[in-house]
Amino acid sequence: MTADRLENFGASLLQHGPASDRVYLMKLTAADLPALLDHIDGLVARHGYSKVFAKVPAAQAEAFSLRGYVCEARVPGFYRGCDDGWFLARYADPARQQDPAADQVAEVLQLAQAKARPPRPQVVPDGLICRLATAADCDAMAELYRQVFASYPFPIHQPDYLRQTLAEQVRYAGIWRGGQLLALASAEMDVTAGHAEMTDFATRPDARGQGLAHLLLQFLERHMPQEGVQLGYTIARATSFGMNITFSQCGYRFGGTLVRNTQISGGLESMNVWYRPLATALTAT
């Protein structure tokens, strides 16, 4: 499946296409309003997209609310600790608001919140190495993503895409045993806004159950302050027990659920937003 396309409108960044059947406003510049809203409406009308998903500062949320957007999640201090982040949705097709997996989504969230605890530093087991990835690792990274995800909203299956993002504002961390890549995750940084999305978690099937996602998350958290990042958040598959429990047990707070928001492995899935200030990131002992 072809990944949705990225494009700029003024200084704002959009992603849209048939894979996730949506327009995603990834980054808003207030000066682009209200023309940006008209542009988004035009994309929806031309392509028949069923949803618009927008991450915006609370200060700009009213302009979207007047166009029929609703808030599905909130992250306090999302923009340099000065303004909250609102995760907004507008449904061109009301049927998309109905999630057939709603009962499982509720079960996963209930269990994840019940397992919340003060975060504990994790130690890398003997024989494994956890480090930042480099351009030389991108072929192995793409191969791992191909093993884990049949399809994905961004072209992480392509080594060239990984090299491009690595050269920009994405940091990848991996866990290796010898020359074999076992697990991988990334932090997509917005240094201007002071936050990073902890995402793209993947573990080889034969390496699961060892807490490698916890290790990668805490490793990335410790690195982020060096990049000027103050807050970590994630948009996690809402039916994934493992990932939601991982973030809950690492001290993240639940911010809301984005209904049938993202295409992963061939289907539209609801996503849970979790967040955590990184000033308290743990150091393993």
Oligomer: single chain
Average pLDDT level: 94
Number of strands: 13
Large-scale geometry: globular
The portion of residues assigned to helices is 25-40%
Q: How would you write the strand order of the largest sheet?
A: 7-8-9-10-11-13-12
Question: What does this protein look like?
Answer:
With 285 residues, the chain is α+β, with helices and mostly antiparallel strands. 25% of the residues lie in helices and 37% in strands. It contains 7 helices and 13 strands. A hairpin with a 3-residue loop joins strand 5 and strand 6 (83-91). It is globular and about 55 Å long. The termini are far apart.
Write the layout of secondary structure elements.
Layout: E1 5-9, E2 12-17, E3 22-27, H1 35-47, E4 51-57, H2 61-65, E5 70-79, E6 83-91, H3 102-114, E7 129-132, H4 138-148, H5 159-167, E8 170-177, E9 180-190, E10 195-203, H6 212-223, E11 231-237, H7 241-249, E12 253-264, E13 267-277
Parallel strand pairs: 3-4, 10-11
Antiparallel strand pairs: 1-2, 2-3, 4-6, 5-6, 7-8, 8-9, 9-10, 11-13, 12-13
What descriptive keywords fit this protein?
285 residues; 7 helices
Compact description:
The protein is 25% helix and 37% strand.
